[in-house]
Design a protein that fits this description.
A hairpin with a 3-residue loop joins strand 4 and strand 5. The chain contains 7 helices and 24 strands. The radius of gyration is 23 Å and the shape is globular. It is mostly beta strands. The strands form 2 sheets. Strands 1, 2, 3, 4, 5, 6, 7, 8, 9, 10, 11 and 12 form a 12-stranded antiparallel beta sheet that branches. Strands 13-20-21-22-23-24-14-15-16-17-18-19 form a 12-stranded antiparallel beta sheet. The C terminus is likely disordered. The longest helix is centred in the middle third of the chain and has 11 residues.
Length: 497
């Protein structure tokens, strides 16, 4: 009898999804401030050389009548440079929409020397009804920032804004804390920033370490100065500031910037250190068990369960289970399940549907794929992972005062100048918190975008009974269903960590 949590049933997952849906879409406050940790996409041809570094920002935003504004004071964690941007949108539905931005030459202590602009852009500063106006739909409820000491993590609701004008059924994700209702994370699948969200939409993931109502007096004063005509025009300068490459172009060819220190960054994001020297990279144990939730190219998250047993020989295997299918906006199903079963020679991909009499019923398998194999326990090191930052003792990342969280990037080059960054978050004791893959040139060429671990067991009591169907598939599938499901599962085969 297995000591591990069993595979959930379809009805159990469906009930969880339907019963936790809030009665109404959440709203943002009319005025709010937040401290943000921003994670970039990969981009090997970026105009900014240090494109893979993390960014920390203090963001303030407010809406008064038809006008919304957002100020972003941004710190580059490795370059130690500070930038200050102001975005303003006026949205009068009866007359016009106008959006512009300004480059603020200021110092980290708040002194404003000059303001440059306005510069034209199609960005839209979010108002209180941002999610409703962008037709957000319910994703699911699950916790973020889970650790072995705090396994319940931070309870969150997750909403998705479908990307308009595409055939791919995916979108940008917005996570809000259940205890406060505050925005907690923004995950942008498309590098084109389809929601036209200033700053947040230009990064793959933005975690809001703090969130408060209201904005500072100095930012209100800055806005008053802009309206009074204090800005210096720069008609020769053009940058819409929409995508990561736009933002990196601004970093590479700045109008103005200021130097900052690690202490300045720590004031915005307490406990953060950029690239601490001598930090060891994590490894999986030979027997590792994971449960969590995955955001992919569907409009509902997948429940995820991973069993890993590495023996160093042909007996090594891994099974990743994904429950959920939601290709239609506003609807989905947790009565469908797909697995990726790896051994040393091939990957099998069985497809299941829930049957009340039979349970998870194997419907068919896609053809086996060779040349993949089981990852080695030190796959982070094998992927040339680098610790890009560390957060210590910050409760808003689920940490106790003596705990450290390492933020690690592992780059994967591809043809045509493309580069993906695998971002993995591990506690100092080797317990995983998060896995993601972020590409800029082809961001949607894979389906496992972001995995949040709710349970990560090292040296887990895994036995053969924990591998359902023992990672072997029968090759019996009608031709039409194979075609339909292939597009949904193709890239799950490659990235099942």
């Amino acid at each position: 009898m297995s000591e591990l949590n069993p595979i959930p049933s379809g009805p159990e997952m469906q009930l969880h999804w339907l019963s936790n849906r809030p009665a109404a879409l959440p709203e943002l406050p009319k005025a709010w401030s937040a401290s943000v940790l921003a994670t970039p996409f990969g981009d090997s041809i970026a105009p900014h050389k240090t494109y893979s570094q993390l960014a920390v920002a203090r963001v303030e935003s407010a809406t008064v009548g038809d006008e919304s504004w957002m100020r972003v004071r941004l710190y580059l964690t490795q370059d130690r440079r500070f930038f200050d941007f102001l975005f303003i949108s006026v949205d009068n539905p009866d007359h016009f929409f106008e959006s512009k931005w300004y480059w603020v030459d200021s110092s980290v202590n708040g002194r404003v020397r000059k303001i440059y602009g306005p510069f034209r852009t199609c960005l839209r500063v979010p108002g209180p009804q941002f999610l409703a106006e962008n037709h957000a739909i319910w994703g699911n409820r699950y916790p973020l920032m889970c650790t072995d000491r705090k396994p319940d993590g931070i309870d969150c609701d997750h909403w998705v804004v479908p990307t308009p004008g595409t055939q791919a059924d995916h979108g940008s994700w917005y996570s809000l804390r259940r205890d406060t209702g505050n925005l907690f994370r923004v995950s942008t699948m498309d590098s084109s920033n389809p929601t036209m969200l200033p700053f947040f939409g230009a990064y793959f993931m933005a975690n809001l370490e703090s969130f408060e109502k209201g904005v500072s007096k100095e930012s209100k004063k800055l806005l008053e100065s802009v309206k009074a005509g204090a800005a210096v025009k720069r008609p020769e300068y053009w940058n819409p500031m929409v995508t990561q490459q736009d933002v990196h172009r601004a970093f590479a060819f700045p109008i103005a910037f200021a130097k900052c220190t690690s202490k300045d960054i720590d004031k915005i994001l307490p406990g953060f250190t950029a690239a601490p020297p001598g930090t060891p990279l994590p490894t999986w144990t030979d027997k590792t068990f994971i449960e969590g939730w995955t955001l992919g190219l569907d409009l509902i998250p997948y429940y995820t369960r991973i069993c890993y047993h590495f023996t160093g020989d042909k007996r090594s295997r891994q099974q990743s289970i994904f429950i959920g299918l939601g290709v239609n906006p506003g609807s989905g199903s947790y009565f469908k399940r797909s697995d990726t079963c790896l051994n040393t020679s091939q990957a099998d991909n069985p497809y299941f549907e829930w049957d009340d009499a039979l349970g998870w019923n194997l419907t068919y398998c896609l053809p086996s794929e060779t040349g993949i194999g089981v990852p080695v326990p030190d796959w982070v090191s094998q992927g040339h992972g680098v610790v890009m930052g560390q957060i210590r003792g910050n409760a808003n990342f689920g940490l106790e005062p003596d705990e450290a969280l390492n933020l690690i990037a592992a780059e994967m080059p591809a043809a045509g100048g493309e580069l993906a960054i695998f971002w993995v978050w591990f506690l100092g004791n080797g317990v995983g918190m998060l896995f993601s893959e972020a590409k800029y040139i082809h961001p949607l060429s894979h389906t496992l975008q972001l995995v949040d671990y709710n349970l990560f067991l090292r040296d887990a009591p895994i036995t053969g009974s924990d591998f359902s169907n023992d990672c072997h598939c029968v090759q019996s599938a009608p031709s039409a269903p194979v075609v339909n499901v292939r597009a949904h599962l193709t890239h799950r085969r490659k990235h099942s960590a």
